[in-house]
Amino acid sequence: MTSQAEREPQPSIRRAPVIEFLRAPVLAVAEGKKFPEPVVSTPATAYPQIAPAFRSYPPLPEKNSGRAYAPADDENLIRQQIDDLEHLHARGHRVEIEHPDADIRDLLLGEHLDISAARKFATLRVWYGKSRGQFMKVANKVALLKIPQHLQAELSRLYDDEHKAVRAKIRRREATVRRRLEKATAPQNMKYIPLWLDIWKCAQLLGDKSETKVAHLFKAMTGRTMHRKNVWTKLRALDRILGEDWLDEVTVPRV
């Protein structure tokens, strides 16, 4: 007999266009939903070097779009949070989560990530106060996990409201930055503009022009390694074209 997990279509394993990770996220699973078993998480090893923020996932209903969540959308949202947890674990993020359930409390402490415990966390309900029993908001999950800003930049769903605002500002400014780069670029160098935009986005997400940090996030975004000296050269080119204060055009917490 074919299981639900075997019937469920899996997300395609490819790099999404960079703009895809800047979609405004749904911050919490709709209250009152029941989640079918089982969830199948695509392991991080299936996406060599690509962080969850830059993977291709089926689109979720936009807020105020009039499209209701279907069971497949719920599973998609859970899948993305589990993939984020896998990525955090693989990146060496180790914290004890403040929660009465030992499986959740020790979720990131073991040598291997327990996918069943990760699913528990993805569907976590508030266990205290007036909100007891409601699905926990993503921002509160991020606080429990103590995720620093530079790691939030690599995640598909587990980032806080402040980082959400940063991504929205980057999305709004991208077209303007592209036009400024095109205006200042010789025809034979136009092919480099997508690369410069990727470097610009990495620096804006981090709130930092450190060539080492930008090089790491660029690799997480594209799967390609760029030597930090090459990153430094491109950051200085952005300084010349956009002005040295271009990083401050998007308010972002420093890491």
Describe it for me?
With 255 residues, the protein is mainly alpha-helical. The protein has two domains: 4-159, no CATH class; 162-249. Helices cover 44% and strands 0% of the residues. It is built from ten helices and no strands. Mean pLDDT is 80; it is low at 1-48.
Tertiary shape: elongated
Helix proportion range: 40-55%
How much of the polypeptide forms β-strand, as a percent range? under 5%
* Poorly predicted runs: 1-48
Order of helices and strands: HHHHHHHHHH
> Biggest β-sheet, characterized?
none
Number of strands: 0
What's the domain count? 2
How many DSSP H or I helices? 10
Q: What is the radius of gyration?
A: 19 Å
Please state the average pLDDT score: 80
Assign the structural class, choosing from mainly alpha, mainly beta, alpha/beta, alpha+beta, or little secondary structure: mainly alpha
